[in-house]
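My hope is that you will study the record closing this message with an eye to the fold:
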Amino acid sequence: MTQTPPDPATSVSEHFSTWLSSLRIGDLSDTVRQAATMDLIDAAGLCVAARNTEYARQIVGGWDADGACTAIGHGRTLDAAGAAVANGVGIHGEDFDDTLEGAPIRVGAMTLPAALAAAQRFGLSGERAFLGVVAGLETVCRLNHVAPGHMHKAGFHPVGVVGAMGAAAAAGVTLGLTAHEQTMAFGIAGSLASGILEYLTDGAWTKRLHPGWAAQSGLRAAVLARTGFFAPRTVFDGAHSFFHAFAPTATPDFSHMSAGLGQDWYAERIVFKPYACGTMIHPYIDCMVRLAKRGIEADRIRRIACKTGEGLVHRLWEPLAAKHSPPSGYAAKFSMPFCMAVGFFDGDAGLDQFTDAKARDPRVLALAARISYVVDPENEYPRNYTGHIRVEMDDGEVIELEQPHMRGGMREPLPPEEIIAKFRANCAHGGWEAERAEQLLEYLQALPDHADLAGLSAFGG
């Protein structure tokens, strides 16, 4: 689809909304179609994996509106907003969902639930839902490149903030909004976006809520925009705009919202996680797994120092004493020392490595206490996620290991068969029989071909 340069009198939102409203299924590249399909499969498996957790049951049980929409893995059906919340929380709840390199953010947890809920609620086709999925993914990926890192600096969680805009695009394209209506949906979503980083203090569950809340916020914004509700068309670039509020230290680069639309698909860069913890920790876990494979005994390790990027410190390293002994399995997912230590002992950092019991494992905690960091000014974060460990042994020997990139990332992507294997394992973790998991897999692979999404209800309980 050829794009002309935006008219200076046209706002960023208006220009981007014009493109979204003209998007058709034939415009999608094969690569972005596959990325969206893999994201749907990965996300659905995560919903099933989380279905029996306390927080997921609380979200579904505590929602105050029934309806005909599906919360994947749960027997109760909810209204569209409730299904969007429940599915968003389920996708992101174990921190095992997709991510984006270069401008770190989760992508599918906020957008897929909005598109699915909109299509199921209003009886729309699988093709409309799939187009909405791609639109939402692309919106989050592009919008998060406008001011990467600055929302974190201001204390906001981009998943909840940018995610509301992505969900507005996902729901809006699914619903077939006009360019003006989509502009209004973004304008409304700007006032519904939310999410602060205080969960980092004690591993609180509010992080899990952010993508679900963003999904229902964007959905509500799109539905309301169809009524003609008046909202600011300059939500991104006005004097009191989205970035002025949520990223006040940034000089926004809005070229990401106009250059190469329909030709350069940012959503093709979405990556999938092999470990169920903070994304930037993954290369360090790989180093520790390789260290263990050398036959190194933990008791012989005197200390481990890790070169790290400045942008990782406040979320994954500090306060160091608290990261050495996280208060829960969930908090442990955002502790660099714990994740590294558990990877050394277990050779993995999956769903079984982040229970509350594992967070109290004395062997893991003893090794974690010997892990620290030094800031490396040459570290490539956020353009690339690397890992480095310098291990001092009790006899004075020094071992250094490096991981040059994230496995599962753009430099070493997970092949589709590994993502599907992860989906099957997650469904089994959630207690589903293999036959039912295969039925859901086939349903998602053929999503654009369904006349409507009534069949999604078969995967509720």
Observations:
- The beta strands are 66-69, 99-100, 270-271, 301-308, 371-375, 387-393, 398-403.
- Residues 249 and 293 are 44 Å apart (CA to CA).
